[in-house]
Amino acid sequence: MTTKYPREGEIIQIQSYKHNGSIHRIWKETLVLKGTSNYIIAANDRTVVTESDGRTWITREPAICFFHAKHWFNIIGMIREDGVYYYCNLSSPFVWDQEALKYIDYDLDIKVFPSMTYNLLDEDEYERHRQEMNYPAVIDRILKNNVQKLVSWIQQRKGPFAPDFIDMWYEKFLSYRS
Known about the structure:
alpha+beta; FomD barrel-like fold; EC 3.6.1.15; EC 3.6.1.6; Ntdp-like; DUF402; Nucleoside triphosphate/diphosphate phosphatase
């Protein structure tokens, strides 16, 4: 049976888990702009986010989300007054199970500024969770390799970092809201 992927225009939920299977974070509503077996591009703005402890908050700005079925990261382009900021999560490739888009968050993050400078974040949290949850050595290697792949994408302005990527998908997002 072929897996159906969310259709363009469909509202989906995004669920982030930790390696031990516990829920990490849930984004209530995200609009699918393109869905294929390899990737999903989606957008949200002022969506409710529920943390693992039940606390909720609302996103502050429009965001274009890029999830890939083969890469161990996802990329969120946040559209702010002074430019696009990217938040990149080192994570498992996404899965879609008709209920939600799901992935495992592996703590390491890269924040990219409009100038395309970037910072690797949460290395201490990653190290703590790697030991607490016994990440296999193969996962550790995959994630560290994907940090390098992500840095290469940033430097080459590849994928969501390409100059017009976020603008193009944001325009499409706005067309659904009019």
